[in-house]
Amino acid sequence: MTKIATWNVNSVRARLPRVLEWLKEFSPDVALLQEIKVIDENFPKMEIEDLGYNLAIHGQKTYNGVAILSKSPIEDIRRGLPGETLDEQARYIEGLTNGLRVASIYLPNGNPVPGEKFDYKLSWMDRLISHTADLLKNDEAFVLGGDYNVIPADIDCYEPARWIDDALCQPESRRRFRSLLNLGLTEAFRALHPGPGCYSYWDYTGGAWQKDFGIRIDHILLSPQASDRLINCDIDKTPRGKEKPSDHTPVWCEIENKEDIF
DNA sequence: ATGGTTGTGTTACAA
Questions:
Q1: Confidence band (pLDDT; 50, 70, 90) for A185?
Q2: Residues at the strand B interface (Cβ < 7 Å)
Q3: CATH number, span A2-261
Q4: Where are the domains of chain A?
Q5: Shortest CA to C1' contact from A64: nucleotide
Q6: Terminus of chain A with fewer CB atoms < 10 Å: N or C?
Q7: Each residue of A32-50: pLDDT tens digit?
């Protein structure tokens, strides 16, 4: 069984104590991190490697940045989506590890609407859809985890009316998220938990965490071959309640090993 | 109440 988690850490250096304790306690086989906010050279490699993880990093100064941590070697690494050679924003990294292709995704926020940032979000989603369609042609198990910055449906936020003008809720954003799923992917959490009121992000402001004013924007998407092996998926709210937390909390899933399927 | 908080090679901007 392979335990895979995704977590937007909101700066890996500011969050290092939280990240290290989480890796020790939760011990995911693969961790997909977003918003590391650091260039590759300054990533705290030694501290994380000391816990037994291999690293693949696509970093950037100040903003964005994604990484894959895995207890197995990571091969066939891709940094950035195809068609974004002029895109300086580090938001996608993919690799092959432990027999699974995995990607860490930090989809653009896209606010304010309308505007250049929203246009960038939509075109980035179009490139993600196109690349995912290519991945599906290989008929292999893959896991796309990350901060999608999309609230898929009204049941995924505490008060839909408050988000009506937000890029995370726009029909264009939601339609593209559905198009991604309609390629044949399974959204792991929603597949196993049909009910409302489960969130992965709570704003730092206004006591949102204490009031449970959250939204569900961190998602794990599975190819058919991975979905066939899905054992479990959940949101781990523990890290969000600690000192100096990220505003996001990890989402994780367990994928059965191929040799254990009969 | 057009607020609030966190992070960044910051002092404006992104989330």
A1: very high
A2: A 10-11, 13-15, 37-39, 42, 61-63, 108-109, 111, 117, 204-206, 244
A3: 3.60.10.10
A4: 2-261
A5: B14
A6: C
A7: 999 999 999 999 999 999 9
